[in-house]
Amino acid sequence: MIDYDALFDLSYSICIVGANDNGKINACIVNTVFQITPAPATIAISVNKENFTHDMIASSGKFSVNIVSQDAAMRDFGPFGFKSGKDVDKFTDVKYRLGETACPILQENITSYIEAEVIDALDIYTHTIFIGKIIAAEKINASATAMTYSYYRDIKHGKTPKKATTYHDSK
Amino acid sequence: MIDYDALFDLSYSICIVGANDNGKINACIVNTVFQITPAPATIAISVNKENFTHDMIASSGKFSVNIVSQDAAMRDFGPFGFKSGKDVDKFTDVKYRLGETACPILQENITSYIEAEVIDALDIYTHTIFIGKIIAAEKINASATAMTYSYYRDIKHGKTPKKATTYHDSK
After folding, report:
1. What pTM was estimated for this model as a whole?
2. Which of A86, A114, B55, B164 could form a disulfide with A65 if both were Cys (CB 3.0 to 4.6 A apart)?
3. CB pair distance less than 8 Å for A38 and B139
4. CATH of the domain at B42
5. Residue B58 burial (CB < 10 Å; 0-12/13-18/19+)?
6. Do A9 and B131 touch (CB under 8 A)?
């Protein structure tokens, strides 16, 4: 028996994962972002294959992770999660710069960012786990707290998109 | 430039990962546990190759994840992290049962448990990411809150073992 409530006890961060494929930038919300090894420092992300950002990371071999701040408003980061970069430019009203990887780094509403180059990938049914070697990371707001997924659900009353790693019909 | 403070903004849970290899049980603390796909439900863990539990999971192809409760005392779960199952029996004073996978499920100090069968693995320098298909999960304490890694560090003043995914000399 699988009680999905048990899975919700695992803690996640709300992150905006960015990509740059031949000058085209895009980003989507990913909550599955984890450090894998300390030295060399590597990070893993799990991205739904239906996300446009997924294909851009697979093609370009690099990604950025923007860790959303707890005090960010839904209107600031929500659009990254419920629209496709195929249809709209998600960066129209967003302050950002391009990092060392040329992937987008947000200038507001995040506590830190990480940039990585893909060194391996694993195909798991609907998602791909990309393993990235970290080439840059910076804490840009020392006083801000990162937003956890439980804070997003319980305090912000945020919904879980169907393409998320943690989506279940019952929730 | 890699600012390791940025990496500490990612949220993790404190979990005791259990194994059963031919009747020998063991467990270690792992903070890198995350869901990969919702259907079929899969979970990933990153385990240091030097851990005895690592070899037992690789050999047996199954593992349990015990999500530690925020109100657990250091003396209750700490021994799982700073000793090797090669040298001591970590379960001597622990209340547990064997789950569907025959891996150990703690009866105290956890909010939930998950059991999984390994379907894939990825070798990343010092660690292996095991991907498990979830075959059982249960929330056993609905009123308890799971312990995050930041709670462990900031409130419990817990230390990071050298074999952890998030260990850095500077911390």
Report:
1. 0.92
2. A114
3. no
4. 2.30.110.10
5. middle
6. no
